């Protein structure tokens, strides 16, 4: 970790849909040598029952949370579209003025409506102005170029059982329109053991992810700080 990271506290927005164990890894790493000078300023979920929302509220200090479900949002006004929803998610996020957005088990494909706003390409009326692109990164439980999309763990396990792969892993990658096709930020391989149940594989994978998401987040924040240093 270079010391270019120093300076103002870095602000992180985390998007979740479920248990939030990777969010918990980030919460626990805040302002430690693993993730120095960084604070999670918002946790946003598209599922009301996501336990990650509880983790955020139980953090010390508590982390502000927001919930916005796609279907309830659409049902509230039939004229609304998925792009409208993505713009609202963007509004919630940019109003917290994050330096970085981390998708940590966020199970919703983002349209360009979201990406164009957080990149500053399009401004959102009535929201904070985005003066420089806010990077978005995603944690994915598979290696680059394989098993893109949802339910990757199950598909990886099945491919291993069929002898199609010998190992797997997890990656954090930049988020672009094409799902799981953004440039890898960091990749960690995970061994696969013949005959082991999926639960054992998944446990090892998650433990790897908890390290990976913190290290990858720190790496990107470091890159942001270095870029800012170049432009200041
Ligand atoms: N534009 C992008 N959006 C998202 C990316 C990305 O790389 N580009 N990564 C995903 C995370 N993800 C895999 O890592 C992923 C999540 C969800 C889905 C998916 O099919 N979602 C369905 C709903 C599924 C459900 O609700 O269970 C959907 O959005 O309609 C695929 C991949 C996050 N977004
Ligand atoms: N395609 C995205 C995807 O599958 N993400 C996966 O969701 C889980 C979230 O766990 P968590 O809610 O305990 O952090 C993680 O395993 C992450 O890789």
UniProtKB/TrEMBL annotation:
EC number annotated for this UniProt entry: 2.1.2.2
PROSITE patterns hit by this protein: GART
Pathway(s) of this molecule: Purine metabolism; IMP biosynthesis via de novo pathway; N(2)-formyl-N(1)-(5-phospho-D-ribosyl)glycinamide from N(1)-(5-phospho-D-ribosyl)glycinamide (10-formyl THF route): step 1/1
Reactions mediated catalytically: N(1)-(5-phospho-beta-D-ribosyl)glycinamide + (6R)-10-formyltetrahydrofolate = N(2)-formyl-N(1)-(5-phospho-beta-D-ribosyl)glycinamide + (6S)-5,6,7,8-tetrahydrofolate + H(+)
Pfam families in the record: Formyl_trans_N
UniProt domain Formyl transferase N-terminal: residue ranges: 11-217
Keyword terms: Purine biosynthesis, Transferase
InterPro entries associated with the record: Formyl_transf_N, Formyl_transf_N_sf, GART, GART_AS
Family assignment from sequence similarity: Belongs to the GART family.
Protein name (database record): phosphoribosylglycinamide formyltransferase 1
């Amino acid at each position: 970790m270079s010391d270019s990271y120093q300076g103002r506290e870095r602000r992180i927005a985390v998007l979740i849909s479920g248990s939030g164990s990777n969010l918990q890894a980030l919460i626990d790493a805040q302002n430690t040598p693993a993730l120095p000078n960084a604070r999670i300023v918002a946790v946003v979920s598209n599922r009301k029952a996501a336990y990650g929302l509880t983790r955020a509220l139980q953090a010390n200090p508590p982390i502000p949370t927001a919930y916005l479900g796609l279907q309830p949002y659409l049902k509230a006004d039939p004229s609304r579209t998925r792009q409208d929803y993505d713009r609202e998610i963007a509004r919630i996020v940019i109003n917290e003025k994050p330096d970085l957005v981390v998708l940590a088990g966020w199970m919703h494909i983002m349209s360009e409506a979201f990406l164009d706003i957080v990149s500053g390409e399009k401004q959102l009326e009535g929201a904070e102005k985005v003066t420089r692109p806010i990077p978005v990164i995603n944690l994915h439980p598979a290696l680059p170029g394989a098993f893109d999309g949802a339910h990757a763990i199950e598909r990886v396990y099945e491919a291993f059982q069929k002898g199609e792969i010998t190992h797997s892993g997890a990656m954090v990658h930049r988020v672009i329109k094409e799902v799981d096709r953004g440039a890898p930020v960091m990749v960690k391989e995970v061994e696969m053991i013949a005959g082991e149940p999926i639960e054992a594989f998944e446990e090892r994978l998650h433990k790897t992810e908890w390290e990976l998401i913190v290290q990858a987040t720190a790496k990107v924040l470091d890159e942001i700080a270095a870029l800012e240093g170049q432009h200041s």
